[in-house]
């Protein structure tokens, strides 16, 4: 099975968990984004499939971007976001994050969390532009390619936007 057409943004967690080829396509997008220039390592197809199999998992995938998250009761967590370098600054990261928030709200989440490397200015700018705010810091949570420890900034979106609640019916 190939990745969905650009802009389709379907929820794919169940398919990622069941379809190794789709998980491999997702892993390729993740690896292209986590290419050593930002803290964090590529996830394997098996890791992505394993994450997607957990209850509450949400996934969004286009040929150029991937988002993995989960919802547990009133809390959502954005676990991974990746856009291929060749497709950046075209609104894909924003679109997937907004879609995730809408889906999480529809699933009952009242707030959302994520962790991002303190040195990752592009990602922090994206989240801040969408209303996420820093709420804490984890010392030395990540390592960069040279092995240096880098802090994680915890960010929260609360409340999840009202418009997200009304548009989050799960339709692509
Ligand atoms: C962070 C990342 C996902 C952004 O993806 P993207 O598809 O390029 O993001 P968008 O085009 O939707 O950008 C939306 C907004 O985020 C901000 N932003 C994104 N990249 C930025 C950059 N390099 N510098 C400053 N602001 C940036 C801007 O406000 C941008 O809006 P604008 O283009 O209208 O100015 C992408 O750079 C990436 O994959 N990086 C490597 C992996 C990573 O860091 N993942 C997140 C870890 S938590």
Descriptive notes:
The chain is of the alpha+beta class and about 170 residues long. It has a single domain (about 15-165), classed as Aminopeptidase (3-Layer(aba) Sandwich), CATH 3.40.630. Helix content is about 35%, strand content about 30%. A six-stranded mixed beta sheet has the order 1-2-3-4-6-5, with helices on both faces. A hairpin with a 2-residue loop joins strand 2 and strand 3 (about 75-85). Helix 2 (about 20-35) crosses helix 3. The model is unreliable at about 1-10 and about 165-170 (pLDDT under 50). The structure holds coenzyme A. Coenzyme A binds next to strand 3, helix 4 and helix 5. Coenzyme A binds near residues 33, 65, 90, 94 and 125.
Features:
172 residues, Aminopeptidase, 6-stranded mixed beta sheet, alpha+beta, single chain, binds coenzyme A
Helix/strand layout:
Layout: H1 13-18, H2 20-33, H3 45-52, E1 57-62, E2 65-72, E3 75-83, H4 92-106, E4 111-117, H5 121-129, E5 133-143, E6 149-157, H6 162-167
Parallel strand pairs: 3-4
Antiparallel strand pairs: 1-2, 2-3, 4-6, 5-6
Helix pairs in contact: 2-3
Bound molecules: coenzyme A.
GO molecular function, one term: acyltransferase activity, transferring groups other than amino-acyl groups
Domain N-acetyltransferase: 12-160
InterPro entries: Acyl_CoA_acyltransferase, GNAT_dom, YpeA/RimI_acetyltransf
